[in-house]
Write a structure and sequence with these properties.
The structure holds two protein chains of two kinds. In chain A, the strands form two sheets. Chain A has a six-stranded mixed beta sheet with strand order 6-7-8-3-9-10, with helices on both faces. Chain A has helices spanning 46-53, 83-89, 105-110, 121-134, 138-141, 154-166, 184-197, 210-216, 234-239, 244-250; strands at 6-17, 20-31, 35-39, 63-71, 74-75, 90-93, 172-176, 202-206, 219-224, 227-233. Chain A is of the alpha/beta class. Chain A has a domain at 6-98 and 171-250: 3-Layer(aba) Sandwich (Rossmann fold), CATH 3.40.50. The two termini of chain A are 34 Å apart. Chain A contains ten helices and ten strands. The longest helix of chain A is centred in the middle third of the chain and has 14 residues, at 121-134. Chain B has helices spanning 4-41, 47-51, 65-95, 100-113, 117-132, 137-161, 165-173, 178-206, 210-213, 233-241, 246-274. Chain B has a domain at 65-232: MetI-like fold. Helices cover 74% and strands 0% of the residues of chain B. Chain B is built from eleven helices and no strands. The mean pLDDT of chain B is 88. Chain B is mainly α. Classes of the chains: A alpha/beta, B mainly alpha. Chain A binds chain B through residues 54, 56, 59, 61, 84-85, 87-88, 91-92, 94, 96, 98, 100-102, 104, 111-112, 115, 143-148, 151, 161, 164-165, 168, and chain B through 98, 164, 166-167, 169-177, 180, 185, 188-189, 191, 276, 278-281.
Chain lengths: 255, 281
């Protein structure tokens, strides 16, 4: 395998809530078209770190960062960079499915596209179908695109949210414990999707489930108490961790 | 010796029965009111009641059409001003919760909510009627809008607060701006409840009499001019119920029934208009 291209990286990134540093001096590079897993015990800062990548962190009152997040060489925190535009290039799916309750299935998928008013109706319909197909949901919902999204199961809702986030064609997808509220079947389908979608997107996934990290990711970072303890190819992190803390965590001695 | 189990079951039944009685006591007045309105008022209901002005004493076949029109106009104008203002203030107080302005707004709204409507009427009289030197339907709308704003604002605020943060985050993460998130997602999610709350406030102000006494004053004629005194159903009820003639009392009952019907029709119409439309799966 040739040396992968890196378009997203952080440089000594520190994320603060008030004066409390939830993430300390993390420098990480995310190879393009790979799945990158962030693991670690609750409160270790992995979700906060994820949220700095699309500037969702700053929507929390009192939150701030130091350091840099570079996307294609540009610091996304530089003055003049719009967090709104950034978030269209870096999509996100949350722990609990968040379909918009007042929108139909199709409208939910289209919701991120409608920001761009130049798109025609037929073009939107095309993208909706394509996104639902890529999220492996098309066959289940094609006969009820106009029905409420709340009628779907939890797993279907989460795939709907995935379809919604990939519809505007982002370059990066952030997944914040996307299977935490799903049953094993729903979890498996999301994992299969993550594996398929990495051909087109760079994926960063936060997970509590170490088997999941081992199954879907190419590289893994272990976070503990706000610092990144270890980072490397997933196989190496899980079979031959260099740090004692990493080994203790993945063998289940704490966390 | 009664077993513990039987004792527990007995207690449970007793409490359920007590709650049932409480519910009955709570809804009984409503049915008594509706019942007596229908009993006393329905007999004089006729088409002419909705199309004519009151007949002179001694003649039959008068109506309250002028007051129905007046109520619709005064309450309509008040709603046009009061609902948007109240919703906007409620959105602000909820979405910008921590700010000083939000705290002050909330406090003022609570005080206004507790202010008797007759005081609001006096205020409208001082500000509008006294300065313009004449009574007007507009002054009535002004008073009613002042009653509406704090009600609508507090309901909106409560309902908007119930919208899960996860939905706001989802919208922001899709690249929605803050205002778009607030209007398109937050407000839209809370809308059915806000509509219900606004309707309740419309229903409440439609029956207000005191603030209209010194503002819209009342009138015996049809009028579309908001700048002049105008009739309203509660004023008709007030005037005819306190008059000396039995025909007047009859008319007051019927007018009360019509007032309730107007509120009911408004509620149903608005419900239908905001019903969520989805295809059947």
């Amino acid at each position: 395998m040739s040396e992968p291209v890196v378009r997203l990286r952080t440089e000594s990134l520190t994320a603060l809530y008030g004066s409390f540093a939830a993430v300390k001096e993390v420098s990480l590079a995310f190879p393009t078209n790979r799945v990158h897993a962030l693991i670690g015990p609750s409160g270790c800062g992995k979700s906060t770190f994820l949220r700095t990548l699309n500037r969702m962190h700053e929507t929390v009152p009192g939150a701030s960062i130091t350091g840099r997040v570079l996307l294609d060489g540009t610091d996304v925190y530089a003055p003049g960079v719009s967090p709104i535009r950034l978030r269209r290039r870096v999509g996100m799916v949350f722990q609990k499915p968040t379909p918009f309750p007042f929108m139909s299935i199709a409208d939910n998928v289209a919701s991120g596209l409608r920001i761009d008013r130049s798109l025609s109706k037929s073009r939107i319909a095309e993208v909706v179908e394509r996104s639902l197909r890529r999220a492996a949901l098309w066959d289940e919902v094609k006969d009820r695109l106009g029905a409420s999204a709340m009628g779907l199961s939890g797993g279907q809702q989460q795939r709907l949210c995935l379809a919604r986030s990939i519809a505007p064609e982002p370059e990066v997808i952030l997944l914040d414990e996307p299977t935490a509220s799903l049953d094993p079947q729903g979890t498996q389908r999301i994992e299969e999707l993550v594996f398929e979608l990495k051909g087109e997107f760079t994926i960063v996934i936060v997970t509590h489930n170490m088997q999941q990290a081992a199954r879907v990711s190419d590289t893994t970072s272990f976070f503990y108490l706000g610092t990144m303890v270890e980072h490397g190819p997933t196989r190496q992190i899980f079979t031959a961790p260099r740090q004692e803390q990493t080994e203790a965590y993945i063998t289940g001695r704490f966390g | 010796m009664i077993s513990r189990r039987a004792l527990r079951r007995g207690k449970s039944r007793l409490m359920v029965a007590l709650m049932g009685v409480a519910v009955l006591v709570a809804v009984l007045p409503l049915f008594l009111i509706l019942g007596s309105l229908i009993l006393e008022g329905a007999s004089s209901l006729s088409l002419s009641f909705f199309t004519n002005r009151p007949a002179p004493v001694g003649e039959v076949g008068g109506g309250v059409a002028h007051a129905i029109l007046g109520t619709l106009m005064i309450v309509g104008t008040a709603s046009l001003v009061g609902i948007p203002l109240g919703v906007a203030a409620g959105l602000y107080a909820s979405e910008y919760r921590g700010t000083r302005l939000a705290t002050i707004t909330r406090f003022v709204a609570d005080v206004l909510n507790g202010t008797p409507s007759i005081v609001i009427g006096l205020l409208a009289w001082t500000w509008v009627v006294a300065t313009q030197k004449h009574f007007s339907a507009f002054a009535g709308s002004f008073a009613l809008a002042m009653l509406m704003v704090p009600m609508v604002m507090r309901t909106t605020e409560e309902l908007v607060r119930l919208v899960p943060d996860a939905l706001r985050e989802a919208a922001l993460a899709l690249g929605y701006t803050r205002w778009r998130t607030t209007l398109v997602v937050v407000l839209r999610t809370a809308l059915p409840g806000i509509v219900t709350g606004s309707l309740l406030s419309v229903a409440r102000i439609a029956g207000e009499t005191a603030p209209l006494l010194f503002t819209a004053l009342g009138s015996e004629y049809f009028s579309f001019d908001m700048n002049r005194p105008m009739a309203a159903l509660p004023l008709v009820v007030y005037k005819y119920a306190s008059g000396p003639y039995p025909e007047w009392h009859k008319l007051a009952w019927t007018a009360s029934l019509v007032l309730i019907m107007v509120v009911l029709v408004l509620s149903i119409a608005a419900r239908l208009a905001t019903r969520q439309r989805f295809d059947r799966p």
